[in-house]
Structure formats: C-alpha cells, structure tokens
Amino acid sequence: MTTAAAGGADEALPADRQRSGGTSVPAPRKGGPAPSGSPGARGRSVTGTRRLIAALFLLPALVLLGALVVYPIVYSVYRSFFDQAGTGFAGIDNYKTLFSDDTIRTAVKNNAIWVVFAPTVATALGLIFAVLTERVRWGTAFKLIVFMPMAISMLAAGIIFRLVYDQAPERGVANAVWVGVHDTFAESSGFPKAHPLPVHPLKAAGGGAFVTKTVVHAGQPVQLPLVGVLPAKMPGDAKPAKAPAAGADGAVTGTAWLDFTKGGGGKPNVVDAKELGLKGLKVEAVKDGEVVATAKAAADGTFTLPASADGAELRLPASNFKEPYNGVDWLGPTLVTPGIIGSYVWMWAGFAMVLIAAGLAGLPRELLEAARVDGANEWQVFRRITVPMLAPVLAVVLVTLMINVLKVFDLVFIIAPGSSQDDANVLALQLYRSSFGTDADLGVGSAIAVLLLLLVIPVMLFNIRRIRKEGRR
C-alpha cells in the first residue's frame, strides 16, 4: 500500500521533480548547464564554463602578473637584505640606512608633504571647477582647457615648468609676472653698479651711498659725475647733460651725469657734448645727519635744491644703486618642492574635475532644489548637501592621487636643478639614484622599493574596503 501510494505520488509530480531512489532530483534542462551537484556540473564554474578552459584563458594574464608584479616584489624584498655587492647578508642594515641617511630622510619628509598637499589641493580645485562650470555658459570649453594638461607627458610638463620657474624675468613667466607686480608698487633701482671715480667730487658713505667731499653753497653749481652705468640701464629718454647754472633765491643747483664719452675723448669732471644726464637720480641734502631737502635729476641731469640745502652735504642714497628686483628663486632650496607640487596640480586638477563633474551629474536635482526652497543659500547647499553626497567620488579621486604622488619621479627629476635636487628629493627619485647612480647600492634601492610598497598598501586596502562597501549597497 505504501509503495503504491509512493508510485502515485511520483506520477502526480512534474517530470523534472520525480523521485529517484527516494530523493527528488531535478531533471537536467534541455540545452542548459547541469544543475549544481549533478555529475554533469563537475568541472564547471558558476557561469557554466569548464574550469580548465577558464584557467587556460587566464593563464597568459597570470603569467604576466607573476613576471611583472609578483616576481619583482619578492626579489626586491629578498635583495633588500643583502649588501651592495649582493653576496653578503646585511640583515636590516639597509632599512636602518633609510632612517639614518639625511638624503633619504629628506625624501621621506618630502613624500609626506606631497601626499598631504598635492592630492588635497588638486581635489579641492577639481571640486570648485566642477561646481562652478555647471553655471557657466561655456562650461564645456572651460573643462576642456583645464583637462588639456592631462594630455601632456610628465617629461614635457617638467620642461615647461623648468622654463616657467626660470630665475631670469625675461625667460621665466612666473618671475616676469612677479617682478611686474613688484615694480608697480615699489620703486625700482635706477642705476645699479654706478659709482664715482677717485677724481670725482664724491666719496663712499657706507651702505652703498655716496656723498660730496665738501659741503655745497648757493651760487656754486655742484657736479655729480658717475661711471659704471651700462648702456642698457640708461633711461631711454635721457638727454645730453647740461652744465649747471647758478640758482636764484639761494637755491643750490647741480648736474648729475654719466661721465663717460663713447669712443673716448672726454675729460673727467667736465660735461662733454656726448655725455647723458642721469635722469631720475635721487639727490639728498644732509645736515647733521638729517635730510633737509631732496630732488631728482631731470632728463638732462640738472637738479635744483631749495635754500635750506645751503651748507649741507649732498648725498646720493643707496636706493639709486641697488641691484634691480629679479623676483623669487622658485627653484631654490626653500620653494622648489611647493613649485613642483604646483606643476603637478596644474596637470591633475583637470582629472579631478572630470571625475567630480561626472559624480555631480548624478546627484538628484530635486534634493538640491528642495534645500533652496527651504531657504538654504548656495554655500549651505554646497557644504551640507553637495559635498556629503559627493563623498564617495571625492574619496576615489583622493585615493587615486595619493597613490600617484607616492610614485612621482619625472617632475622632480626634470624641474629641480642639480643644486636643489637634494632639497626636492622624493622616494621614487632616491630609488633611482640609489639603484643606478654613481655609488649604486641595490640593497638600499631595494629597501626603498619595499618602503614604497608598504606605504601604498594601506591606501590600497582602504580603496578595496571602500569598493566592497559600495558593492554591498
């Protein structure tokens, strides 16, 4: 009776669910993969592909991964425990060198500066550009211009910024702008390196100034000859010097000129026909250490001081002769690292802007509009809604740039001159110098490579956790 009932039950079940030996076994579907656990499913992956075939397709990639990534890592770790020749076991001596050698410690410090500032500034600028270009009519063209540096190689960007930071204002754009702004608000020197000869009626007064050898009086014209002014430094509107005439009402008069005749033939302390006046030269009348009157030479070199200058010494202050302002030493020991970081930001701000703009395009506009309707201003909408909702995208950009700056090499190697390269040194550059430089030590170079790997791993783990977290949403 039991058997018959069981037989009837089997007949009542669909064909693909009939029992076999007391157990319900799904029948294999026509044209589809065998069910999991069945004999036909053995040797197949989740997608139904045979594992052997999948392994064969993955083999070339695995071989390349092993040859280009796994083997170099393993060998670098192994080599870092041996001496310079590679024959003697050095233990952790190479790792001790990383923290005892001043050059390598500077590289570690500079890498920390790079990791903190370069990704932060690039991401912040990318965020600002992405938000602002949404409201600009020509936003697409602006994004294209900002992104264009990404098409330039690091080598080319390094050469460009080596010229931008050139110390000479006539070649370096940065100093040309800086000097132009400085000279707009500060008076520049008129005659650098100008000086009197021993036969002239002037003597040094200390600090770069010159004074007359005797006091001056009204009715006795004063001569202030100088030499040493380069033709290029002479004012373009300077005129032939005129001999001073006696002043009226007790005024003190005089002439300041370049006591040098082109081609020779002139006489010292005499205003010759071909000699030019020192236009703009500042003259001070000094009594008892105090300036009682000042004047500036005209285009022909003549000047007039009031009667208060009678009995005073005439002084040519040092401001007439100081070297002209030549801008900032961008590639000096102090500013070379910030300067190179600036070139990196110029290249990668466009990358950050494009990624953030893509994330910004996916934000729900109704949420932003609702906040505005509720009375929030644009700064509040940006700070409390836009930035928090863009946090995943900002994290991607920051992590990507952090990994990138840990490997920065080209910009530092090309932009930093030889005199400042130690001050701008980073780990990737020091790895190159230690491994392939004049005193190559592959043990120390391998230890630096391992240190770089250890610095990258935490960032990579953070990125993996973030991706998994995003995948579980």
Within the largest sheet, what's the order of strands?
3-4-10-7-8
Class inferred from helices and paired strands: alpha+beta
Through-space gap between termini: 55 Å
Summarize the helix and strand pattern as letters.
HEEHHHHHHEEEEEEEEHHHHHHH
Helical stretch count?
A: 14
CATH class of the largest domain: Mainly Alpha
Strand residue percentage = 5-15%
Query: What is the CATH H-level superfamily of the largest domain?
Result: MetI-like
Shape: elongated
* Sheet with the most strands, sense and barrel status: 5 strands, antiparallel
CATH topology grouping of the largest domain: MetI-like fold
CATH architecture of the largest domain: Orthogonal Bundle
- Number of beta-strand segments: 10
Fold and architecture overview:
With 473 residues, the chain is α+β, with helices and mostly antiparallel strands. The chain has 2 domains: 93-169 and 330-471, MetI-like fold, CATH 1.10.3720.10; 202-320, no CATH class. The protein is 47% helix and 10% strand. The protein is built from 14 helices and 10 strands. It has a 5-stranded antiparallel β-sheet with strand order 3-4-10-7-8, with no helix packed on it. A hairpin with a 2-residue loop joins strand 1 and strand 2 (23-24). The two termini are 55 Å apart.
Features:
473 residues, alpha+beta, MetI-like fold, 2 domains, 5-stranded antiparallel sheet, 3-stranded mixed sheet, 14 helices, 10 strands, 47% helix, elongated
Reconstruct the topology from this structure:
Layout: H1 2-12, E1 19-20, E2 23-24, H2 51-79, H3 93-100, H4 102-132, H5 139-147, H6 154-164, H7 173-185, E3 202-206, E4 209-212, E5 222-226, E6 252-258, E7 282-287, E8 290-296, E9 302-305, E10 313-316, H8 336-361, H9 365-373, H10 378-389, H11 391-406, H12 410-415, H13 427-436, H14 442-471
